[in-house]
Amino acid sequence: xxxxxxxxxxxxxxxxxxxxxxxxxxxxxxxxxxxxxxxxxxxxxxxxxxxxxxxxxxxxxxxxxxxxxxxxxxxxxxxxxxxxxxxxxxxxxxxxxxxxxxxxxxxxxxxxxxxxxxxxxxxxxxxxxxxxxxxxxxxxxxxxxxxxxxxxxxxxxxxxxxxxxxxxxxxxxxxxxxxxxxxxxxxxxxxxxxxxxxxxxxxxxxxxxxxxxxxxxxxxxxxxxxxxxxxxxxxxxxxxxxxxxxxxxxxxxxxxxxxxxxxxxxxxxxxxxxxxxxxxxxxxxxxxxxxxxxxxxxxxxxxxxxxxxxxxxxxxxxxxxxxxxxxxxxxxxxxxxxxxxxxxxxxxxxxxxxxxxxxxxxxxxxxxxxxxxxxxxxxxxxxxxxxxxxxxxxxxxxxxxxxxxxxxxxxxxxxxxxxxxxxxxxxxxxxxxxxxxxxxxxxxxxxxxxxxxxxxxxxxxxxxxxxxxxxxxxxxxxxxxxxxxxxxxxxxxxxxxxxxxxxxxxxxxxxxxxxxxxxxxxxxxxxxxxxxxxxxxxxxxxxxxxxxxxxxxxxxxxxxxxxxxxxxxxxxxxxxxxxxxxxxxxxxxxxxxxxxxxxxxxxxxxxxxxxxxxxxxxxxxxxxxxxxxxxxxxxxxxxxxxxxxxxxxxxxxxxxxxxxxxxxxxxxxxxxxxxxxxxxxxxxxxxxxxxxxxxxxxxxxxxxxxxxxxxxxxxxxxxxxxxxxx
Length: 726
Ligand code: DGJ
What we know:
The protein is α+β, with helices and mostly antiparallel strands. It contains 13 helices and 39 strands.
């Protein structure tokens, strides 16, 4: 049993294969987060305190015999605002008396097999109840009647605890939730570095690592989506911890909207990390009897460095987050037309793309933006999801039939949450976009945002999409989202619910995705937001792959893919070979093979030689599919640390196969390049396919190979494939 309650000590102990968490019910019902870290088999938690420094400025609870207890000193597991703990509160609820003092105390607990669903929200899951266990602790604010049900799921096979919180109004009066974290972690010291992924359009998910300091460090988004700018992920790494060694905590929110992850180091070097929906622009009105469910936070702990943290996230997302047919079934290798023609295409051009693509072994053609309404640029027609007859002259059905006859499946682009002012939908329903009274709407990429909180709006978009998808043979949808939310108001929300809009918007998007997948369970949806502006576990639950970035320059892609790999598996990273001339096609293919692999260009412009190379890469995609999609990633040399070259490995779960890829970003005269490989079985003998040489796993990992003889010019790359039969 991974979760146990020790009656006498009043301790909950949560054991994963690589971590232990301990919670204690203290006097007066305070719930303490005593420990989260490397596994501890015994129970000597009696004298465990974070610090016993206590001053008159630390408020006390007079009912407590322990005169050294202060909520400001002890590790309060889910700390409320304004009642004695001055560190950043996990939760703040404004009550009907007009104050936001919040103080949750222990009431009861239940331990259940498996993992309950989170109503209306994406979350990790198990298909067999024996694979996880869930602890739910009910906390009550006895003054206001607010309840907080803290949920912790422990997975049998991974060092993961999935956490979330449900707030219930058990009083007779309304209340307003001002802040509600999905997770609050307390650690007794602050000797960690803060790692997060920052970025911008075309340069998503750069890794930044800085030592923690007194005060707060945070990453957040108030853009209405998780955003290009910060990912809803953060890690705390022990000073000196690296790719392969050292303690690391990782936190990732299964959420696609406004978020905040704040780490606070107080004046006694104790640390608190809160993660959840961003409090800015959030106020949730909760009537008597109503409840509010937070998004899920996935927490990972390992003593084996950032690499192992990533592999734990990857395995969890592959097995317990991604759903549907393409969780296990091979995805068709696709060519996307966008960078090959942008808006300038017609049905003949699409068929010609498909014909050339078929010659190279592609299995699906994706027609991107511009096939609907009268869309010739980015300034019209979003919301008008009917075929643009001047472009697709014979109609969608006949064009798809011709593409199918060439042996390819067909995929199509939508941007369901948006509306162009120049559209029939806007003419008919100008009130269907987000807006606030008295202010003009900001425009971005010539478009407004649809009010996804409204059922009638969602119904309309659903029906339009259903018509296209049910009347045509369509296997794939690219779901785009090309601006952020401003003037976020809904004509249908009363004033006291005005600040619920951002979260309701995300819930609306999730419900549309859920409805679409219920109707078309075999549909493969690829998420996208101007590249990787909504690359998060929330979207991954619905869309097993996400377009990683609009930047298809292979060298710039490297940092983007390395950063993305911090928590997202290779099978999630949309990665395409494109025209950008910075490297040859071999290198473009090697980089795209780290992700979903595909092409994004006009195949009519390729030379015979280029086509031959790409044909080989498509074959490699099939050959290495399982290794690349379900293997374990080892980052060997990262572009965040080395300006010249970078390298990564994919290792099969049984460690009998390993594919090593190296890319030279910039030539260096230093040809000495010794690589000590990672993640192999020291006792196995590995054969290097390229030369036929044999090495023990121990040799490859401990002595390594000098790879200075392989291509090392600007933009050159090579792969080494090792297999072990004995
Ligand atoms: C942004 C996406 O990231 C691109 O791949 C492409 O689909 C365009 N939108 C189309 O407008």
